[in-house]
Amino acid sequence: MKILVVDDEELIRNVIKEYLTIEGYKVDEAEDGNIAINKAKTNNYDLIIMDIMMPNKDGFSAIKEIKEDKNVPCIMLSARGEEYDKLLGFDLGIDDYVTKPFSPKELVARIKAILKRVNNEEEKYKFGGLTVDDKAHVVLVNEKEINLTPKEYDLLKYFIKNKNIALSREQLLSAIWGYDFYGDDRTIDTHIKTLRKNLLEYGNLITTVRGMGYKFEYKEETK
What we know:
Elements: E1 2-6, H1 10-22, E2 26-30, H2 33-42, E3 47-51, H3 59-69, E4 74-78, H4 83-91, E5 96-99, H5 104-121, E6 124-127, E7 130-133, E8 138-141, E9 144-146, H6 150-161, E10 167-168, H7 169-177, H8 185-198, E11 206-209, E12 213-216
Parallel strand pairs: 1-2, 1-3, 3-4, 4-5
Antiparallel strand pairs: 6-7, 7-8, 8-9, 10-12, 11-12
């Protein structure tokens, strides 16, 4: 798993990185909010640790911008323990708030707890009669298994993980095929067409965003 550590203090980044590396995590670093935003656009992180007070762009603004594009778990790290800051962070969708000074071991424990919860939640996705069992690598439509190519499956899973977020064709190409792929928009459009067809009546969950790309659009049913 890959974690982004964002803090303007190099010493803090180094300490966190050391403990996370020991636990087997891959660690990327950023010293301000703008760098974090740019790295989050081009990398798929499993979790982000974000300091609040930083030059150029603060942690709150960075988290807000990142979450507009990707639904990634976040831990807010701050020397400020005011209730207002915590509430603002949770309103932005963070998963935890850790006040400095902190215990690196406790931070690692919190990270493990969040990742375990997120992974357990994301083993199986259900959207009406469409079920994606990621652990079994199976897709069902109305309880009947359907066959997808590896790329179609990866596309569907990426759409689901970014549910209700508009994704450009460039984002989809880089996420599924990688940056060294020399294809064009037609590659995406062709795979989307066949994926929609294979999903039968649930193919319309993948909507076209005019002038940009596509979106997996699903609104939870309310009773």
